[in-house]
Design a protein that fits this description.
Radius of gyration: 14 Å
Number of strands: 6
Strand order of the largest sheet: 2-1-6-5-4-3
Shape: globular
Amino acid sequence: MSTDANKELVRRFYQAVDAGDTAAVPELFDSAWRNVDPSLPPMEGLDGARALIGMLKAGFPDFSSRIELIAAEDERVAVRACHTGTHQGDFMGVPPTGRPVTIHATGIFTCKDGKLIQNQVVFDAFGLLQQIGVIPA
């Protein structure tokens, strides 16, 4: 796939997350997909991809992503994104607080044959916990 096609795949990933569209998982993710993020539980395969999308939408039903920077080389796509939402559901064991959040994340996505095979993402988990009141600001 071309770098442009890989960037479009990553854009479609963010659209699916924002929409909570777990039906798009087989189209976007390889069955061997892995999420590498030290702030989240391990997630793999199509069920893991569904869990990732479901977890974000359950905790933040109005979850929205804005790609600030996207660059690609060969099979890898690097992204800097800003995510917003309102903590209206349980997220990683934290009951809803109703607080708005703005979180920045940086990710490197690996694509193969038109599907995602790995996400290596680091997001501001500490800032998120501060914004929902788990950790004092």
